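Quick start: what a row looks like.
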Amino acid sequence: MRKRINWVVLLIMSAFIISGCELALIGVGAVGAGSGTYFYINGEMKTDYYHSFDATWSACQKSVADMRGLDVEQEKEIMAVVNDEKVKIEVLYKAKNVTTVSIRVGLIGDKLSSQLIHDKIGDNLARK
């Protein structure tokens, strides 16, 4: 019986992966990976940084400045224009020394550009 259930679950997951279902791919990635996992859902790329909120906020600000962001607005989030694209960075406190950063580039999101900004934030945090 247990073997049959395992095969059914495997068959269903395979169908989702073959059809290109993002949630199934994210689920597989989240199960197989540890920290440093990026989630790209609805045009936003999110990850957790294991640094304080203040250090992460400073790294996000420095990343936007390094990329020569224009029209920068900072309240609870950072809004800027980088390379003629609107960029929105949300920094959320999750726990002590754990901060979630969500990035959206453009109106519908740009995965590659979001990844580039996350890499820049990570580099800035590593320098501290």
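That is the whole record. Residues 2-19 form the longest helix (18 residues). The chain is about 45% helix and 30% strand.
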